[in-house]
User: Which sequence fits this backbone?
């Protein structure tokens, strides 16, 4: 499995955070990449987000972002999700960390979790691979977070369409 293209160094898993959430990341990017940082509540609603442009390719771009949010309850589960896309909008990497969002109080940040590897790494097919014959062979590694089923969505772009 390859090293993670997105490493969330803060907040760590199950951190207790009050607004604003301060995200610290290390991102591997291509030229003209976009980094999207989103904070979701426990019902899946988008609480805050930021879109950053990375103009030059980088093997280790440090990113810091503050995300202000508001919740109605005293606390709720949330997810910080970070994605990178190339200049064509193709998803290149994704990483998430679960946090506990608090409406007031003091943040308690835990150390980063497994920042070395991606939870999901697909080795084949590669981007721009030619697929034919009606069968798509996929090779990769998945490190489960829980016992729920894995759903794989795959988009196929037809040449000349």
Assistant:
């Amino acid at each position: 499995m390859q090293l993670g293209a997105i490493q969330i160094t803060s907040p760590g898993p199950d951190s207790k955070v009050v607004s604003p959430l301060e995200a610290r990341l290390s991102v591997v990017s291509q030229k003209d990449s976009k980094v999207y940082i989103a904070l979701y509540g426990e019902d899946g609603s988008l609480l805050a987000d930021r879109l950053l442009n990375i103009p030059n390719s980088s093997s280790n771009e440090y990113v810091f972002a503050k995300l202000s949010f508001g919740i109605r309850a005293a606390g709720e589960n949330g997810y910080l999700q970070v994605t990178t896309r190339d200049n064509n909008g193709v998803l290149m990497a994704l990483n998430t960390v679960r946090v506990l969002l608090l409406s007031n109080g003091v943040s308690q940040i835990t150390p980063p979790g497994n920042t070395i590897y991606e939870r999901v790494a697909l080795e084949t097919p590669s981007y721009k691979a030619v697929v034919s014959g009606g069968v798509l062979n996929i090779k990769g590694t998945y490190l489960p977070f829980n016992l729920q089923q894995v759903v794989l969505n795959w988009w196929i772009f037809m040449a000349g369409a």
